[in-house]
Amino acid sequence: MTTTTGAPDGAVAPRPHAAPGLPGLARLAWSRTVFEVRGFFRERDAVVFVFAYPILMLAIFATVFGSDEELIPGSGVRFPQYFLPGMVATGVMLSSFQNLAISIAAERDDGTLKRLRATPLPATAYFLGKTGQVLFSTAVQTALLLAVAAVVFDVPLPIDAGRWWTFAWVLVLGTATGAVCGVAFSSVPRSGRSASPVVIPVVLVLQFVSGVFFRFDELPTWMQQVASVFPLKWVAQGMRSVFLPDEAAVLEPSGTWQHGATAAVLLAWLVVGLVVGVRTFRWRRRDDG
Fold first, then answer.
1. Could you say which of 17, 261, 273, 284 has the lowest number of CB atoms within 10 Å?
2. 95 DSSP 8-state letter
């Protein structure tokens, strides 16, 4: 039987209905980000906790320590203003590190990651989607916190562009670092059910030693040194440089805001998180081969 293909002898005629190629990485990452954001907001109890926790903690500490008492006599800095940077920092940690470490462990446990790995979706698009969701939720959470602080507790917000630039790069770099470390840490829990008991104590300990709930300069020296190893302390310090006057830098152990050190430590943890995550990330449960 002879079939006429319209192609020269020895040539292979193209298939008339060839499957189109996958969209580019940027488009896939954007689509995955939209998917992740929708999934995040469907978990209403988690959304309420993540958004409300920093606001509630700010209200509690402002009430306990007094919203009218000055931290430094004559400075005009009151306790709500001092605790706001720590609440912004802890919100970043909740939205990035804690959120991803727990949610990815749960997705691994219920087989979502295994099924996703069998699709043509590039792994990079999956991780960029997670990071995009974290950046979006962090931005919303931080905006709500700043609005409540300004309206309810009369916390003065910065008015010069330089401070807002510092706020932006500390927020973005801290969020990216927390997201990468959360992905890497998601391989530590043995199952989805054990993720919360494993992750939350780590977050709580870091909050207590990093100057989130207490004045950092009043913590024991050894505790300050331990906290200086981890990103949360530096995010909180970077945020204090934004929302506190320059005179308040004397409350830091170094007497300065250390912006260079803040960027260096966060970048170092970003690189460490990437390396560890690439080497240890698992798409399947431990008992699934």
1. 17
2. I
| Burial group, residue 202, by CB count within 10 angstroms (0-12, 13-18, 19+) | middle
How far from the centroid of its chain's Cα atoms is residue 173's Cα? 9
Asked if residues 176 and 131 have their Cβ atoms less than 8 Å apart, the reply is: yes
- How does residue 176 score in pLDDT terms, banded at 50, 70 and 90? very high
Answer yes or no: pTM beyond 0.85.
yes
- The yes-or-no verdict on residue 68 having pLDDT over 80 is no
Mean pLDDT, the chain, rounded, equals 87
Nearest to 135 by CA among 100, 104, 95: 95
DSSP letter for 154, please.
-
Torsion of CA 191, 195, 197, 202, to 10 degrees: 130
Sequence letter at residue 67? S
Looking at residue 62, its pLDDT comes to: 80
What backbone phi and psi angles, to 5 degrees, belong to 169?
-75, -35
CB of 96 closer than 8 Å to CB of 175: yes
Candidates 50, 52, 241; CA nearest to 148 is: 52
pLDDT of residue 9: 42
